[in-house]
Amino acid sequence: MYHPALKTPLCDLVGIEYPIIQAGMGFVARGPLAGAVSAAGGLGTIGAGTMTGEELREEIRIVRSITDKPFAVDILFSSAGGKNVAMFSKDVEDHIEVVFDEKVPVIASGLGNPAPIVERCHAAGMKILSLTGNTKNAKRLADSGVDAIIAQGYDGGGHTGRVGSMTLFPAAIDAVDIPVLAAGGIADGRGIAAALVMGAIGVWLGTRFIACTEAWGHDNYKNSIVDSDDEGTIRTRCFSGKPCRMIRNETTAAWETPELMATLKPFPDQMPNVTEWLGEDPYMAGRRDGKTDIGALAAGQSSALIHDVKPAAEIIRELMEQASEALGRVSGGLSGN
Ligand SMILES: Cc1cc2nc3c(=O)[nH]c(=O)nc-3n(C[C@H](O)[C@H](O)[C@H](O)COP(=O)(O)O)c2cc1C
To answer: Using an 8 Å Cβ cutoff, are 298 and 157 in contact?
Structure first.
């Protein structure tokens, strides 16, 4: 039995046992990972960002072959019409069609504003959660009618904002009238307990679930997270043109020099720029081929808290045990046992 405070409104909102969502992560978070997390009582998420509609459908079917429990799909709602959010890109329209067709229980929006599909989601009985890195955007998303906000702090892996997690979590909770989940810098049960004590209804964890048996990615990538300490990552624009937290290596160091900084291009032009400079696709070099010295290895500061690569079910169990213990400590020994 875990601490009773770990049964949160998130569990009821999306129909899960434990208040832990595995983050949508491009390349890394596919059917096998999402299925394993959901089967273990959390909410697994497929990161649709880099997939075609049909690839997404295939990954959804993999999840359903593993478990009949709820899961999520994370869509990057990039707009085709500049500030006109009513016009999504063709890829996004494909993802939207597939999630409705496949009746996916939970949608996460990792980028942009899903406002145009919120009513349709609710009419279909689907929940929708939206990621943000600041309170201004949290308010805008809440006004769009989404079910909960995921506040991701500066510490987090991948594309990340400027506000630190310890400030952002309570600030976002105060800024909106809907529930908030905490993300960025959480990789053990102490972080989960702290987020709940601050008032979050659950957590959205990325980096912890890269160092996971079922995650897609080369073992060298997973082990680079295990080997990283608290200063082992850097927020750099060198791969995508937008600030993105990565494991430090030769490529990130080279792009800190004034010579290369001067050639940096804005999103989305930096990707071909760095690919030409490197002579290969940095994402494939890092995640698929395990070239940790030069490749793009998205990961958060929470790498410092991760000491092993193990199956999702073990990660969930360990997180719940640690969170129970931490909550028991602050509530005078009440551990729920
Ligand atoms: C490898 C990687 C890929 C990511 N890709 C996405 C993505 O496609 N969509 C998205 O919403 N967030 C993405 N993120 C951010 C995560 O969803 C999450 O917010 C972040 O990892 C949380 O911080 P943590 O890594 O400290 O747990 C990515 C993060 C990582 C580490």
So the answer is: yes
Distances (CA, A) of 8 to 27, 152, 180, 238, 270: 30, 19, 12, 39, 42
For residue 301, give the ligand 1 atom closest to its CA.
26
Strand stretches in the chain, DSSP E: 20-22, 44-47, 71-76, 79-81, 84-88, 106-111, 127-132, 148-152, 158-159, 180-183, 202-205, 233-236, 244-247
Nearest to 256 by CA among 234, 240, 287: 234
Global pTM value: 0.96
Give tens-digit pLDDT for 167-204. Answer: 999 999 999 999 999 999 999 999 999 999 999 999 99
Q: Are 223 and 213 in contact (CB under 8 A)?
A: no
Please state the rounded mean pLDDT for residues 314-328.
Answer: 98
* List of domains in the chain: 4-215+307-330 (3.20.20.70), 219-302 (no CATH)
The CA R_g of the chain, rounded to the nearest whole Å, is 19
110 CA distance to ligand 1 centroid (A)? 8
Closest CA to 111 of 143, 146, 140, 74: 74
Q: How far is the CA of 8 from the centre of ligand 1 (A)?
A: 23
In 3D, which of 185, 70, 63, 79 has the Cα closest to residue 129? 70
Distance 33 CA to ligand 1 centre (A): 14
- Tens of pLDDT, residues 44-75: 999 999 999 999 999 999 999 999 999 999 99
Instruction: Number of helices (H) and strands (E) in the chain: give both, helices first.
Output: 14, 13
Mean local confidence (pLDDT), 91-95: 95
